Amino acid sequence: MNDVHNSFWFFALLISSTLIFCFIILKKRNTQTLFLYLTMVGYGYIIETMIFNFLGSYDYKPNIIKHNAFYDSELGAFFSNALSLPVIATLIATFHLNWLWIVFFSGYFVGIEWLFLKLHIYTHHWWRLEYTGLGLLMYFGLAKIFYKWILHPSIGFKHNLMLYLITGSISASAHILPMLFFMNRFYRPGWFEDVGRDSIAFSAIYYLCASLIYCLIVKINWKMKWIKYILTGLFIYIVNQVLIKIGILHSLVWWDQMYYVFLALFLIMLVKIIDKRLSKPILVKNPF
Fold first, then answer.
1. What pLDDT sits at residue 153?
2. Which domain holds residue 106?
3. With contact defined as beta carbons under 8 Å apart, do 287 and 96 qualify?
4. What is the percentage of the chain residues whose pLDDT exceeds 90?
5. Which residues pair with 187 in a beta bridge?
6. Residue-level pLDDT at 1
7. What is the average pLDDT across 152-160?
8. How far apart (Å, rounded) are the C-alpha atoms in residues 188 and 248?
9. What is the C-alpha separation between 115 and 121, in angstroms, rounded?
């Protein structure tokens, strides 16, 4: 019964966030909205890697994943950082909501966090509600800045940062979610005693480095386009073999290594498309 109680609140966030996101997409009908959402997911993942994975700021308790408590907590973080927060950030930026709305939504999520604490489905360690409020003010404000960058494409740092954050959002989700649900692999670098935390922490470093490589490969002007795919697939395969050899990667199912090689190839193709679309301004409809 307690499991149902815990998961209910997280699924409520999932459903409400999905409905709001569908509303945004139906109203905007452009790729810039999707790019902003993915950018905010990618940015949120980086922040969460630092404060949650490595610094142990808090724990989520959705009680959805039974076999590993930290994986369950990671899934709770996913509900927040891949759904509710970036969706509202996208709403604020794409509908040009002012700072009063930013303050309102920041307070709204602080209220949700307080409720989750009282329901004992979320636990603070060194984290505080004040940190959430301040962090969200900056997060939602940053979404408005990122949206301006996306609306007015440019080469150089802004473009490359957008591309990296978008790539990271997709790469991280596709890398870690199978580990949570299918137990296809785990990492054991020995940074933390808890196997789940150790595995997710290394996964974060893996996806951050892999995303950078994908972006760099796409940016190189290859004479023979197919070479990038061969080199990428071979590189990911070799990295996996080295990690297995030194005892960090433990591959548990037959399809595991094949999946990550094909994921890398797919991401190269996808990042190339995103890179081109980010460079082209698209007419944006009236916010309302």
1. 78
2. 2-278
3. yes
4. 86
5. 249
6. 47
7. 86
8. 5
9. 9
Q: How many domains does the chain have?
A: 1
Residue showing tokens 């580990």: 179
128 three-class SS: coil
CA-CA-CA-CA dihedral for 19, 165, 261, 199, to nearest 10: -80
The answer to whether residue 163 sits within a structural domain is: yes
Q: Mean pLDDT in the chain?
A: 93
Length of the chain: 288
CA–CA separation, 5 and 10 (whole Å): 9
Q: Domain for residue 261, yes or no?
A: yes
- Is 287 domain-assigned? no
Q: Is 283 a member of any domain?
A: no
End-to-end CA distance of the chain: 43
The secondary structure of 41-68 as a DSSP string is: HHHHHHHHIIIIIIT--EEE------S-
The predicted structure's pLDDT at residue 47: 96
Cβ-proximal residues to 25 (8 Å cutoff; 6+ apart), any chain:
33, 34
Q: What is the DSSP letter of 250?
A: E
Token readout for 119 is 């329901």
- Annotate 69-100 with b (16+ C-beta within 10 A) or e (fewer): ebbbbbbbbbbbbbbbbbbbbbbbbbeebeee
Q: What is the dihedral of CA 267, 252, 49, 209, to 10 degrees?
A: -40
- 123 in helix, strand or coil? strand
H-only helix segments in 194-255: 195-219, 226-245
On the 0-12 / 13-18 / 19+ scale of CB atoms within 10 A, 163 is buried
Distance separating alpha carbons of residues 281 and 288, to the nearest angstrom? 20
